[in-house]
Amino acid sequence: MEDLGLKIFGAILTTIMAFAVGMTYGGIVRKLTARVQNRFGPPFYQNFLDLVKLQSKKTNIAHGFMGHTAPVWIIIASITVLMFIPILNGNLWFPNLNFHGDLIFILYMMVFGSLGMALGAGQTGNPNSAIGVTRGLSMMVGYEIPFVLALVALMVQYHTTSIQDLMQIQHESGTWLIFSNPFAFLAALFASLGMFRYSPFDIVGAPAELASGPMSEFGGKYLGTMMTGGSIFSFIKLTLYVDLFLGGAGNPDHIGIWATLAGIGVLLIKTFTLYMVPVFYGWVSPRYRTEQAIRYFWGWPTALGIIGLIWAVY
Amino acid sequence: MNLFFIILLILFSSAILAFISNRIVRGSSGIIAFIGITAASILFFTQLSIGSTYSFSLGGIQMQFGLNSFTYLFAIIVLGLGVMASLYSIQYMKGKERLGYFYFNFVLTILGMVGIIFSQDFITFFIFWEIMTWSSYLIVIYNGYSVSKVGIKYMIFSALGAYAMLTAIVSIKGIYGSFMIKDAMAAGAFNFTDHLYIPILLLIGFAVKAALMPLHVWAPKAYSMSPMSFTAVFSGAMSKMGILGMGLVLASIYSHASPEDSVNSLILKQVLGWLGGITAVMATIYALIQTDAKKLLAYSSIAQLGYIVVGLSTGTQLGVMAALFLAVVHAIFKGTLFMAAGAVEKQAGTTDMTKVSGLIRKMPFTFFASLISIIALAGVPPLGGFVGKWMLYESLITESDSYFLVIVIFFSSTAAFLYSYRFLFGLFLGQEEKETEHVKEAPLTMVIPMTILALLLIVTGLYPGILFEPIAHGMEYLGYSNVNWDMSVLNNIWGEQTNMSYIFTSIGVVFVVVILFISLKGYKGTRNVGTKEISTSGEIPLEHENLTYQLDYYKPFERAAAPLYKRSMNKIWNDIGNALEAVFNFTRRIYTGNGQTYALFVIIFLVILLIFKDSLFAN
To answer: Counting C-beta atoms within 10 Å of the first and last residue's C-beta, which end of chain B has fewer, N or C?
Structure first.
């Protein structure tokens, strides 16, 4: 029973950390983007202020059942995936159910939130939301192809479908998978551009074009909850990439309090570096049209993924 | 009298009764059909035990009825879905013409499928196969003259398949001297070493029913133009008869394969797998450009059957298990979806998604059933569809060499999200229009079967073991040994696993916490609005202005995938048809129908005979 209590405490702790990191990263990017565009920009903790404001609104507009539950779907997807992804390698402070759900499950579970979001946006009846959703789903067919090619390459190369095992392999061999299968990493990196939806792939929200797309009808507690889920989710995506390609963080041989803190530090450095790739790419790119975005992912990223898969097989 | 005969007799007599009773009491045939099918199912599941057989001879040919654990799995699909669909049908068909005709054929189709499940020899198998084909053909053309062309297409392809099957059956008898399916399996009749054409002909026969490319062209229209209560059975259960046959043939190839067979069966694996994969992709991309919900579902059925064929083609334990699991789950969710489309058609008058939208508040139960089924169809955790997809991917990645097939399948199932969303959005979400204001929830007897099936999908997600048990027994019948399964844990051969109970716990806990939070927080300040109160960027839309977004729904995707859309199997078959017509026109020059010409032929024949008299009759 004591064990279970510790696990629940760990789960809550993980969620809070993921939430805080995701929110802070978002804030930092807002600030940096502003500086690049020669604006002053909000402080890095602006996202937290926004969240407090949204959650303390006195009136909220509910758009029927699906609209009401859409934020719930997003949180479910975020927290469930978070529970099944190893945050630190072999650390007891963070619960890790990865043994009970492998990569294929993670891949499908990540869609759960988008589906709920899409359904909620659909019920509002706003045509902009519907257009945003169709764009998002279409683009997903684009970037999932190189992403899956990269993942299948890893799975085939190391004969495992578990993230935990892939991390262990990297820990034991001392080589990150980014070096043992660079093509797969590149394919996945290109796919991440679409996943994070910064320019030129910001066709879903599309500021100044679709209002804010699927989000346009949500406000108050709904938008606040979605923001929470979204922040956790962006942390998950980054952690997944770090676990798969950049060796993960943490050392299973040292699980003391200082080693844990050091592990978190390493994780933050790696995730932030990775996060800057789509952000930098976005700063210098105008927006694609949807079909251009899809074609983009079916071009070089897919070719790289295929090379990566062939590399893995032979 | 034997139990097999009693069950068939119950079905047959209720078919006849349904036909007659409509003349006496209008609308009573639906109830009779439901009672007949239910009675047969109750008898089947309570009285009949697996392994029992009954032999008899007819016209000097030894025939046998029996039930084995493999066909038992399909009996669950056929009878389960049959009961649900016939219950649903009572209200759905209410007020339509020629009910006697419809129900006669409906029950007869079920009878045909039950007969196929019972038959242990090829003769009865073929007879019931034809009963099933003919009665379903008669329902396809139920909607009148406009669908007669659809019916003809269905009939032509079915006939093609039937002839292929018949040739194979006769060859098996000629070579191995027995009509028994079990004997043929044991003798290795389906193996590739001796008689290559037998398994290929049989597979062609089954592939027609399973709507495998390139023999699928009849399916989209035949599925979408039949009455929906029948399509639920047509797509859900009848297509699985093709899978049943394929399973019998393929599994016995793989489990009895000799070493010299391996090259051939490797080619077969690749060919079948890729056919299934391409079927899935092409059907998916065609599904997502449909504007009619029924047609969308029809194409999606073909795509899902493609996955099942891919699973069967791997021939490994996990792959076949995935295929059979998907077969059952597909029957459940596609049955539900066709029923939901039928409910919308009944209540709103049409399933054209450019005309109907925003039904969620009017038909909440239908929406709930559709939502659950769509989640299962898309393979999103934690429902039954995910379990099947997971096993399919794992078997392809861990046990076969066709890694690129994984990508093809993944492409198709990601694109499936597009049409899944389209279906829900098109019918239930979006703007609520004036035209659909009068729409009400479907009658209770239509809602109940949909809800039961939707709940089944949740159960199969949490406890897939319920289905694994009959599947594992069925696979042991086919020759696999030591089939592993757990109640709610999925395993692959590399030792990784996915535990459905952990997933359910995680999702359930978060769901309860967050839904309580979001519902209770600021409960009084939450205002519920309709679909007209939306942000329009400062402009105020006028009364007549249309805010519905339904036309050209996935135009960007269509543009991006334009090269794929250029391929159409229909075109190729039309070309083949035209070429055949040219050949027939040529034969018409010989068989002119004119007596004088035939007389001339006789004379020419005699002349030839006289000229070559010596060389022909030399001795």
So the answer is: C
